[in-house]
Amino acid sequence: MWARRLDRLVLRLSPLLRRLLPRPADSALQALARPDRGPAPEVVLPDLPDIERARQAFATGAYGEALFLFGEILAVDAENPWAWHGRGDALQLLGHHAAALEAYERARALQPKEPLHEAGRQNALRGLGG
After folding, report:
1. Are 3 and 111 in contact (CB under 8 A)?
2. pTM higher than 0.70 for the full model?
3. φ/ψ (deg, to 5) at 36
């Protein structure tokens, strides 16, 4: 509950924060993506065995593998917002911000009230220099 409130607050403050804070250095972004950061936080996702495998690949830093696995899920279920979101995360950490933006927008179109999709979209825009 508090996490959703915090996400809403961050989304409201993000335009102001973008003006006040510079874009983090690539070294800082890579430090955030290090596999030794521990397991990803628990998120409620659809009950698909493949999505868990994709999340595990992502959590260990195997972004190419995660991208492939999320693509496999989308080949079967193109309406899965969490597979689109995961695809966006993997693309973003691989440096493909434009493709990540498209993936987050697909996730947002399928699940418009989920603030994590908008947060990912904002991160991709920042990665594009916007």
Report:
1. no
2. no
3. -85, 10
The string of pLDDT tens digits covering residues 82-99 is 999 999 999 999 999 999
* Phi and psi at residue 61, to the nearest 5°: 90, 5
Tens digits of per-residue pLDDT, 25-56?
A: 665 556 656 666 566 556 554 444 578 889 88
CA–CA distances in Å: residue 22 to residues 48, 76, 88: 38, 40, 22
The residue type at 85: H
Report the distance separating Cα 60 and Cα 95, nearest Å. Answer: 17
Domains along the chain with CATH numbers: 2-34+45-127 (1.25.40.10)
